[in-house]
Amino acid sequence: MSAAAETPVLAQTKARRFGLFVCFMAALAGLLFGLDIGVISGALPFIAKHFVLNDRAQEWIVSSMMVGAAIGALGAGALSWRLGRRYALALAAVLFIVGSLWSGFAGSPEQLIGARLLLGLAVGMASFTAPLYLSEVAPRQVRGAMISTYQLMITVGILAAFLSNIGLSYIADWRWMLGVIAIPAAFFLAGVLALPDSPRWLLQRNRAAEARAVLQRLYGNPADVQAELDQVNEDSTRPQRGWSLLRANSNFRRSVLLGVVLQVFQQLTGINVVMYYAPRIFEMAGFGTHEQQLWATVIVGLVNVIATFGAIAFVDRWGRKPILYAGCAVMAFGMCALGFLMHAGVVGLTAQVLAVASLLLFIAGFAMSAGPLVWILCSEIQPQQGRDFGIAVSTLVNWVANMAVAATFLSLLSTVGEANTFVLYAVLNVVFAVVVFFYVPETRGVSLEKLGRDLMAGKRLRDLGKDDLAPSARGQAVVKTNEAL
Ligand code: BGC
Fold first, then answer.
1. Residue identifier of the C-alpha nearest atom 3 of ligand 1
2. How far apart are CA 223 and CA 221, in angstroms?
3. Ligand 1 in contact with 398 (CB < 6 A)?
4. Which residues contact 470 (CB under 8 A, 6 or more apart)?
5. Which of 96, 127, 210, 393 is most open to solvent, judged by the fewest CB atoms within 10 Å of its CB?
6. Is 271 in the pocket of ligand 1 (CB under 6 A)?
7. Is residue 255 within 8 Å of residue 382, measured between CB atoms?
8. Is 430 in contact with 328 (CB distance < 8 Å)?
9. Over 395-415, what HEC string results?
10. How many Cβ atoms are within 10 Å of 7's Cβ, its own excluded?
11. Is the pLDDT assigned to residue 419 strictly greater than 50?
12. Which residue lies with its CA nearest to atom 11 of ligand 1?
């Protein structure tokens, strides 16, 4: 049936279904990201035994993926501009398949490091392209929820990996566990090829008719399509710039810096300390056996998944900032409580239960706020002409900060002690809330184009998207600078 012959209700139902499909398929990138993050902690002891590895070689196996991810994120900007978001995701999917199979069949530690580097490239490319693509296809009223689905998939991937770690502790077959990730990766590849190109990317490539057709499939209603095109057109036909824009334009430098700061603070919440070292933390909290620690870790993964639904439900209703404040408060409280318990010594069942509850509270706080919201904000705050570059830089920083936090946790424990380490993370979460208050704009329901225009007009970061404010005197000066460019 042609679009014209369809009833409006039918067209909208079809559009809604198509939107869900697009959202799910693009978000599958997150699943692979999560699987690859989570699976190595369980597989590593078996790999170490198989190849008789020292600590250094093991560190390389773990961190090669992060190195690859940092490189992948950086290269993904140019790739997704040239190939388009869809083919960039497809390339990441191919790398996921090859990397998973190679790591499953690796004949030496060096090969495994190579395979993990390749997987890292895939993770980096996917973690850049998926939120960007989702932000570009999503209708603005549900943009937050659609990008949160990506984070939900990360958490599902991590949980699945934690569960497979338990399976692995029984069957002891690390090759199978690493190689099997090729199956969801193949599914992802098939799905990505069925996705439409991003309408904003098509417009920038002067392919307006195709952009309109994609929007029609996504919105189902010609009036909404036109409204969206009216918003998009004026800024979206400008070609992408990176370094040159950064050098020339102080407004762009502000949004790039904000993206970097947000990703650094996402990691400074301490989330990956819990993700990578959960069994160790549970050991400190008095859970003696390896089995107890693994199961407690699965509960962490489960809470991480469940709490992410909170963000999906509320991010487009309450807005980004209130959720971030609530999340920072919960995370700070959880870390602080854990610090105090460690200080007092976790002895007895009540103290153990309280320690687990504090950790779970922290995870819930992260999953409902900083987890999804940082990815959402980073894909929203960059102006159209520098979006690919801006998001590539913040994604790169996410991975570098991730490595830095993972690499310093054990030394922190031994230098400042367990209790102080957790209290330090609590303080960092409070600082995060302050940064949100002063610098983060409320982007709920605002079009990407308006956010970009406000930024380039010199509005304060926290005022981007607000209608009622005239640009400040400083802003007007910057407008002049921009116009001169
Ligand atoms: C972060 C990852 C983290 C994951 C946990 C993501 O948003 O970027 O570093 O491991 O959330 O769910």
1. 272
2. 6
3. yes
4. none
5. 210
6. yes
7. yes
8. yes
9. HHHHHHHHHHHHHHHHHHHHH
10. 9
11. yes
12. 371
| 134 in contact with ligand 1, CB cutoff 6 A | no
Q: Got the DSSP string for 159-197?
A: HHHHHHHHHHHHH--HHHHHHTTHHHHHHHHHHHHTSPP
> Comparing C-alpha atoms, which of 239, 278, 454, 276 is closest to residue 360?
278
Residue 155 CB–ligand 1 contact under 6 Å: yes
Is any ligand 1 atom within 6 A of the Cβ of residue 37?
yes
Q: Could you tell which of 134, 154, 359 is best to mutate to test the pocket of ligand 1, judged by most ligand atoms within 8 Å of the CB?
A: 154
Cβ atoms of 366 and 306 within 8 Å: the answer is no
- Compute how many other C-beta atoms are within 10 angstroms of the C-beta atom of residue 375: 29
Q: What is the pLDDT of residues 431-478, one digit of tens each?
A: 999 999 999 999 998 888 899 999 999 999 999 988 754 444 444 444
Atom of ligand 1 nearest to the CA of 151: 7
How far is the centre of ligand 1, averaged over its atoms, from the C-alpha of 386 (Å)? 25
Residue 348 CB neighbours (<10 A)? 10
- Tokens representing 100? 């998973």
- Calculate how far, in angstroms, residue 329's C-alpha sits from the geometric centre of ligand 1: 18
Domains of the chain, CATH where assigned: 8-195+238-445 (1.20.1250.20)
